[in-house]
């Protein structure tokens, strides 16, 4: 592991100096350790957006100078994203709202009757759009290792040959365990069996270079707000054929090339080909521009340098947690698995919501608790199997209370390019103190959230 002195500095992000109140009345600097939900904006993204903002204008629908400029910037942003993802020549970039939107768009665009394959360990955004679109989905059981995932996919694809078209959806890095999935190997197997692949890179793209060409995936989806660009845009990028043949995602202006009244009184529409087909309505130019700014900033900082820093922080975090016997880190692939800066755990004798609320109220540390929109995976990792009832546990009553009892939800700590080492150290010190001394305050359930009880 490199010494911290050899590492690059954290990238400047907004909110780094924000002070938050503790339940005691003191104030401390906020430790944002929930990057996997939404990462703070890169200062550089914010500055670039601010510099563009006075020139903001409509896109693809205005004769004025600022409309022309905004249209150019919007289309340039598309090319920046294409370079960032190392797309193939005839791939396209569609701007969407976020990963969920991108995957729903694709689900509606695949040819009718396409069979979809996905591991049950996926985030709900990768798990659910296919069945919602009326497609038949084969859900594969949670694998124990990356090798087993590849073998299970090969077996499933060989066993189920129905359907002219097949699609496999996989998440590059888990939003629960942070573990990396063997995307290139899975893609090779999928392609051998005639299945196309869509990569959910919501958690991968902020941490790793994603080369569509090298991974050979057919599509990739990610969200701006997890890529330090929280302005409401996301991306679906990849092969054009199915997208161009599909009905537009939304019907309206921008997607239609011509609309004319027919002699019988009906309306005939000719839709655009290319990204415009699925971008009806006025596009989110600020969101697209912010994503492009983030792509530039991350590429210039260099993923190698960013990863070296992140791996150092991961090493510090996992070593620190390993010294606390009451902490159990959740993992599908085991302690040696490669991961990004996302880690979930449970604490023996603690309700996860209670623990997370105490980290916030008593230490100013922001993490997340729950099932992280990946219910089957978290339930499997907690030892209850992928099924089971809703599991929002009662706050305040530490539960499980007996050693060895299983917790009903988990705590997730996640970080990235803007995280200083001090946040990881403060987090570890807080976990140690809570485990050894307990919470100093009383907590209660308020509308389903666990909060410090400040009533007198
Ligand atoms: N996939 C993964 C792996 C995620 O972590 C998330 C967000 N937690 C999503 C998809 C959905 O992203 P969004 O909420 O930005 O649509």
Provide keyphrases for this structure.
Aspartate Aminotransferase, domain 1, alpha/beta, 2 domains, 7-stranded mixed sheet, binds 4'-deoxy-4'-aminopyridoxal-5'-phosphate, 456 residues, 4-stranded antiparallel sheet, globular, Aspartate Aminotransferase, domain 2
What features would you describe in this structure?
With 456 residues, the protein is an alpha/beta fold. It has helices spanning 43-52, 65-84, 99-109, 124-127, 129-132, 146-159, 183-192, 212-215, 241-245, 285-301, 303-322, 352-363, 375-382, 421-437; strands at 19-21, 27-29, 31-32, 92-96, 115-119, 136-140, 166-171, 195-200, 219-223, 234-238, 256-261, 267-271, 327-329, 342-347, 365-366, 368-370, 410-414, 443-446, 449-452. The chain has 2 domains: 4-32 and 303-452, Aspartate Aminotransferase, domain 1; 46-300, Type I PLP-dependent aspartate aminotransferase-like (Major domain) (Aspartate Aminotransferase, domain 2, 3-Layer(aba) Sandwich), CATH 3.40.640.10. The radius of gyration is 23 Å and the shape is globular. Strands 4-10-9-8-7-5-6 form a 7-stranded mixed beta sheet, sandwiched between helices. A 4-stranded antiparallel beta sheet has the order 13-14-17-16, covered by helices on one side. A two-stranded antiparallel sheet has the order 1-2. The chain is built from 14 helices and 19 strands. Residues 389-394 and 396-403 have low confidence and may be disordered. 34% of the residues lie in helices and 18% in strands. Residues 98-100, 123, 125-126, 171, 175, 200, 202-203, 223, 225, 373 line the site of 4'-deoxy-4'-aminopyridoxal-5'-phosphate.
